[in-house]
Write a structure and sequence with these properties.
mainly alpha, 78 residues
Length: 78
């Protein structure tokens, strides 16, 4: 993978993150527990998952490692 490929991914991540934030802001409170089917996460669980994943990956990049405990800690903070 070359630097231009990585930079292209960053542009994509920025775009997706902005769209995701807009979508989250539009979710009505009474729809946070909505699940399109029983086997999937609710809207609230999905938002928590996105937040926790980004937090753990960012902090892991800073410290140079990621562990299962990092995910447990981040999940308990939300």
């Amino acid at each position: 993978m070359e630097k231009k490929d990585v930079l292209g991914m960053l542009v994509y991540f920025d775009k997706v993150q902005k769209v995701t934030q807009k979508a989250i802001k539009l979710i009505p409170k009474d729809k946070l527990n909505f699940k399109p089917c029983p086997e999937v996460m609710s809207v609230k669980e999905l938002v928590k998952h996105i937040y926790t994943s980004e937090k753990v990956f960012t902090e892991g990049a800073k410290k140079g490692s990621i562990s299962e405990d990092d995910f447990k800690k981040a999940s308990s903070e939300v």
